[in-house]
Design a protein that fits this description.
With 135 residues, this protein is an all-alpha fold. The protein folds into 2 domains: 63 residues, Multidrug-efflux Transporter Regulator, Chain: A, Domain 2 (Orthogonal Bundle); 60 residues. The chain contains 6 helices and no strands.
């Protein structure tokens, strides 16, 4: 990692966290990552904790948490709020299960329409288009 004086440059933080520099800046604007002071005539320096925080945000996003939800999780990161974190995860899990149910319904409807398209013979109207027009 690029080290100059004490700490990491923003580019080094981004590289270590597997994101781009604009992502680091965006997280700062969203108050998900503190913006370090800029010493007069110098550049901002970041710490290893900042890399860990960016990685935390990305990991939470991969689990489906929105940035607002991630902000809530970050407020619980002292290790003493496991029940609150679990409750947030339970809400997210219920949401994911609802979305999966909806996706299965959509998959079934589309599979049926595709089957109808394949079996329809001798008519000018496409069963898929006709069904969508009726909706």
């Amino acid at each position: 990692m690029e080290r100059e004086q004490n700490g990491l440059t923003i580019g080094a933080v981004a590289k270590a966290a597997g994101v781009n520099v604009e992502t680091v800046r965006f997280y700062q604007r969203r108050a998900l990552l503190p913006e370090p002071d800029r010493p007069y005539g110098s550049i901002r320096r970041y710490e290893a904790e900042d890399v860990a925080r960016v990685k935390f945000v990305k990991a939470a996003q991969r689990l489906g948490f929105s940035l607002d939800e991630v902000a809530g999780l970050l407020q619980l990161d002292d290790g003493t709020h496991c029940d609150e974190a679990r409750q947030l995860a339970e809400v997210k899990l219920a949401d994911v299960r609802k979305k999966l149910k909806d996706l299965r319904r959509i998959e079934s409807a589309l599979a049926s329409l595709v089957r109808d398209c394949c079996t329809s013979r001798g008519t000018v109207s496409c069963p898929l288009i006709a069904t969508l027009q009726k909706q």
